[in-house]
Amino acid sequence: MKELDVSVFLAVFEEMLGNWLWIGLGAAALALVALVYVLFRDGGLRPRRLVWSEVVALAGGVAAVLVMQQVTHSGFRDIGGPIDWVLGIAIFAAGAAVTLVAAYAVLGLARRLA
Amino acid sequence: MTTSRIAGAPFARRAFMLGGAALAGLAAGGGRPRAAVATRARIVILGAGAAGLAMASRLAARLDGAEITLLDRRREHLYQPGFTLVAAGLRTPDYVISTTAEYVARGVTLVEERGAEIDPVAKVVTTDAGRRLPYDFLVLATGLTLDYAAIEGMDVARIGQDGLGSVYAGPAQAEATWRAMSAFADRGGTAIFGRPETEMKCAGAPLKYAFLTDDTLRRRGNRTRAELIYNAQTTSLFSVPIVAEKVRMLFGERGIKVNHSHVLKAIDPARRIATFETAQGRKEFGYDFINVIPPMRAPEVVRNSPLRWQSGPWAGDGWAEVERHTLRHVRFPEVFAVGDIAGVPKGKTAASVKWQVPVAADHLVATIEGKQSDSRYDGYTSCPLITRVGRAMLVEFDYENNLTPSFPGVIAPLEELWISWIMKEVGLKPTYLAMLRGRA
Asked: Is A75 part of the contact surface with chain B (CB cutoff 8 Å)?
């Protein structure tokens, strides 16, 4: 089948999330732009801010896993094989990464924890 | 001509099964837009369920100027793979209900009438309103008929009462079945499961509901107060032997008793007695909960037409006689059948539709172009076989009973996994809807 391309994934995510897809992508883009701005403005990473952002990111990762469990009526007891651990870690990592970017950008814009 | 079943199928399957999750990067660059084929062909599609809508969308995208008519009297569209989730108390009926009109592709005319008669020699469909629709190509996508009347004493209006459940009857009945099953899970007693001896849609669903009832009882601490009995219609629990064996093992672990060659023939809802035809004659089972699954047959419009199988195992119930790898009718080459109505082995599922429609569409378009298509459907279908809330087995197979895992070595087909459950719960419906629109 030659229909496998980005448009398939986009179509599925559009059906899944509706307008939230674009709101989420827009928010992620804004966070990235804000992060880049802060990094340029400060001339690099600020260690204290990074550490606190990582602390917040941990919470974001945990929240991503818990939200996924809530949405899918499932829990840790349902992990059944190695791929489930991989999935759980991937969800955690994605949640943490997004939170890290957002937290660092927000703290940087607020000029906190320099 | 334009697609090959072999070359790209596993990748595309992965995309379908994953529901788009996480693989967007890998998928980049695979697609290539095709120029639409100019034609004045008149195409009538009988039935606007999953198969009819998906076919209409695909043909509308591939043809320019064709007169595509979609015929269905029902305005509601039902996301049938979601019925089990409704009957598990995880979703409300509105999760599975939408409208047909919202999925009809531009350039396709939806006629809200039922196909009443097909004359494949004159190439005319007549609707229940008397409208005559001549065609150059006909696509049968009528779905199937639930023959509750074949079970003596069965009363669909009583579903939800007195322990009577039936997930298939519709969204409201699926919810009513949940209420009956939930009440049973609070009390305990005897629950009966099974399936008809006819072909049926989603043959995994009866097994899933036995597993879900077991799970509900366990969550409420009442499993020891209940006896679960699965009355299989043959000597096997599933048509694919390796899957049947796995289910047998799981039923053993869960304490679900199995009887073979038992077919439900009659039910007395007031007295809660179900009567099964067995090798030793008729046998009565008292129950506190039962999930009735009726015999399934081709709708009359096909069953009473020359398009039905004339002999063999699919003749009796009137399924359309199509060549299994192309979905093209064996005697009327301008007729195709996709979805439940197709008289082919194995799956009557949304996944079957997903893989049948592009093949049938490719052959139809190739015929318009005066070419040959080498697209081939090998019977691929899949069943996220739920074994409890939170886990499922991603069972995929083909005509030959081969397991055809989309993620070999990663997602084991016979392993109860959380990831397979997540695909069913959050990935399947958006992928299904994208399929209806011809976008997946």
From this structure: yes
* pLDDT digits 0-9 by tens, A6-38: 888 889 999 999 999 999 999 999 999 999 999
Q: Are strands B256-259 and B226-231 parallel, antiparallel or unpaired?
A: parallel
Q: Please report whether residue B160 resides in a domain.
A: yes
Does B94 lie in the same domain as B187? no
* Chain B contacts to A (CB-CB under 8 A): 2-3, 8-9, 11-12, 15, 19-20, 22-24, 27-32, 90, 358, 388-391, 410-412, 415-419, 421-422, 425-427, 429-431, 433-434, 437, 439-440
Choose among A1, A12, A13: nearest CA to B357: A1
Count CB-CB contacts under 10 A for residue B15.
26
On whether residue A83 sits in a domain, the answer given is: yes
CB contact under 8 Å between A4 and B2, yes or no, is no
Which has the minimum average pLDDT: A33-37, B16-20, B25-29, B48-52? B25-29
**ipTM of this complex prediction, to 2 decimal places:** 0.91
CA distance to partner chain B, nearest, from residue A43 (Å)? 31
Q: How far is CA B198 from the centre of its chain?
A: 14
Tokens of B178: 């949940």
Q: Kindly state the tokens that stand for B50.
A: 């999953």
CB B414 within 8 A of CB B243: yes
CA angle centred on A106, ends A89 and A38, rounded to 5°: 105
pLDDT digits (tens, 9 = 90+) for B370-415: 999 999 999 999 999 999 999 999 999 999 999 999 999 999 999 9
Both B197 and B263 in a single domain? yes
Amino acid found at A75: G
Is B236 within the bounds of a domain? yes
Please give, rounded to a whole number of angstroms, the shortest distance from the CA of A61 to a CA of chain B: 16
**Residue (of A47, A37, A53) closest to A99 by Cα position:** A53
Cα torsion B353, B358, B362, B365 to 10°: value is 80
Q: How far is CA B378 from the centre of its chain?
A: 17
Domain end, chosen from B295, B321, B346, is at: B295
State which residues form the domain around A67: 6-109
B231 and B367, same structural domain?
no
Q: Is residue A114 part of a domain?
A: no
